[in-house]
């Protein structure tokens, strides 16, 4: 089916986030006809950028730190080489102390008893390590020691993943958690930090337009249909039905929708598959965006992790430090992430006042600061949770969807811990798989 007339079949892509747009971009290059359907009135999904007054905020802390040459080139060309390259500055906040990231390598300056216990436990764990961890808690004990795991990692894990570390698998870790050598731990405990160990040592960010400026490279022609929320997918009749009353036929389908939502849209799904899809877990996040009438005396960090339970959020970043065009002259901006789920609900439905209180407690916001803008945006799907049942449930869902012929892509379509470059590649890969079927 390489003939030009056969390429005019209507392929449907569900979702205009990074992965869906990347899939459309590749189909457009290959001269296939397709439509992208997006339920929102804007493109980008979690890679979207929004204006709040004269401030610019992304949908979370998005930067480009890809090591893939083809993605680097692609994104650079998308913004016509107009990006800012940063050396990443990352801090941790623990019981009033500011600690360089990753904290396990930079214990210097913490209370003596804490350092001693972390070192003793780390050395003992290093001697006894068996590389046989069955869950994330065991992995932490083996690689970081008991004291550091309990004082730091487990607290952050609960705030970020909304589950205890013992409830998480280890197949998501990869480069995200740095397992230090004894020399690195001891050096970092005895002297001020001079070394970098973070997997994200440098990154790029568009000069203008926020992270969504990168979307300009994903040319999909005139294929995007906004305000088209799918409410039903009939695989047998190859028919999509939308909340706005419209319907559309398709020949092939690529979905970047969250797998639990995709399964709900299909007819006659086996009960076993429905149960497995319902057991796929994902956190939600309340994003609190603040514009402050001050442009000096900010922490020397692009983003900061918070371990203490009494601080409601787990991470913050400063959009004005990513690009000066993200906030008006003389001002600064903060975006705060507070994660929640059925297992760990939000402490309060309206989190702005609580967030300002906690930021003031840490000294990041000063009592005399004037808050120019504030906004709370709750995002239903945030982080795919790698609990101990994820792999089994995902296999059941994927086996069924493979039978339907639906290609999937993106963080929620693949149900993986994708970064932005992973999502782009995932969309391209979905088209590659589909093109084999169409030959």
Task: Write up this protein.
With 439 residues, the chain is of the alpha/beta class. Among the domains are: 4-47 and 212-270 and 389-438, 3-Layer(bba) Sandwich (FAD/NAD(P)-binding domain), CATH 3.50.50.60; 102-190, no CATH class. Helices cover 32% and strands 20% of the residues. It has helices at 18-29, 69-78, 112-128, 136-144, 146-161, 182-190, 259-265, 271-278, 319-322, 352-362, 390-404, 410-414, 420-438, and strands spanning 11-14, 34-37, 49-52, 55-58, 83-87, 90-94, 97-100, 202-206, 224-225, 230-234, 239-242, 247-249, 252-255, 284-292, 303-306, 315-317, 332-340, 371-379, 407-408. The strands form five sheets. Strands 7-6-15-16-17-14-18 form a seven-stranded mixed beta sheet, sandwiched between helices. Strands 9-2-1-13-19 form a five-stranded parallel beta sheet. α1 links the parallel β1 and β2 (34-37). α3 (112-128) runs antiparallel to α6 (182-190), α4 runs antiparallel to α5 (146-161) and α8 (271-278) packs across α11. The model is unreliable at 1-9 (pLDDT under 50).
């Amino acid at each position: 089916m390489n003939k030009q007339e056969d390429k005019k079949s209507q392929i449907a892509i569900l979702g205009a986030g990074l992965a869906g747009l990347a899939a459309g971009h590749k189909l457009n290059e290959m001269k296939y006809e397709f439509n992208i359907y997006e339920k929102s009135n804007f493109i980008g999904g979690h890679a979207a950028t929004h204006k709040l007054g004269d401030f610019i905020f992304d949908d979370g802390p998005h930067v480009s730190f890809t090591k893939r040459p083809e993605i680097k080139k692609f994104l650079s060309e998308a913004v016509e080489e107009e990006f800012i390259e940063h050396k990443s500055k990352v801090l941790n906040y623990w019981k009033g102390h500011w600690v360089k990231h990753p904290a396990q390598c930079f214990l210097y300056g913490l209370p003596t008893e804490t350092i001693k216990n972390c070192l003793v436990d780390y050395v003992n764990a290093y001697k006894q390590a068996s590389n046989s961890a069955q869950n994330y808690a065991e992995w932490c004990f083996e690689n970081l020691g008991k004291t550091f795991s309990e004082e730091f990692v487990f607290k952050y894990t609960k705030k970020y993943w909304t589950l205890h570390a013992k409830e998480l698998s280890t197949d998501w870790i990869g480069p995200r958690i740095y397992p230090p050598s004894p020399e690195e731990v001891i050096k970092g405990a005895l002297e001020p930090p001079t070394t970098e160990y973070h997997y994200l040592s440098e990154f790029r960010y568009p000069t203008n337009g926020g992270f969504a400026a990168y979307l300009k490279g994903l040319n999909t022609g005139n294929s995007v249909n906004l305000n088209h929320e799918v409410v039903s997918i009939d695989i047998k009749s190859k028919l999509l039905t939308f909340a706005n009353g419209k319907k559309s036929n398709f020949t092939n389908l690529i979905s970047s929708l969250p797998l639990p939502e995709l399964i709900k849209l299909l007819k006659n799904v086996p009960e076993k598959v429905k149960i497995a899809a319902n057991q796929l877990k994902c956190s939600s996040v309340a994003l609190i965006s603040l514009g402050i009438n001050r442009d000096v005396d900010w922490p020397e960090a692009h983003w900061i992790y918070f371990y203490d339970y009494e601080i409601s959020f787990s991470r913050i970043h400063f959009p004005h430090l990513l690009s000066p065009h993200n906030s008006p002259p003389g001002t600064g901006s903060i975006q705060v992430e507070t994660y929640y789920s059925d297992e760990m609900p939000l402490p309060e439905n309206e989190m702005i006042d609580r967030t300002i209180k906690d930021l003031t407690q840490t000294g990041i916001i000063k009592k005399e600061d004037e808050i120019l803008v504030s906004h709370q945006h709750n995002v239903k799907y945030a982080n795919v949770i790698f609990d101990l049942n994820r792999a089994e449930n995902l296999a059941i869902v994927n086996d069924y969807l493979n039978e339907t012929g639906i290609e999937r892509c993106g963080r929620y379509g693949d149900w993986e811990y994708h970064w932005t470059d992973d999502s782009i590649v995932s969309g391209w890969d979905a088209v590659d798989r589909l093109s084999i079927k169409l030959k």
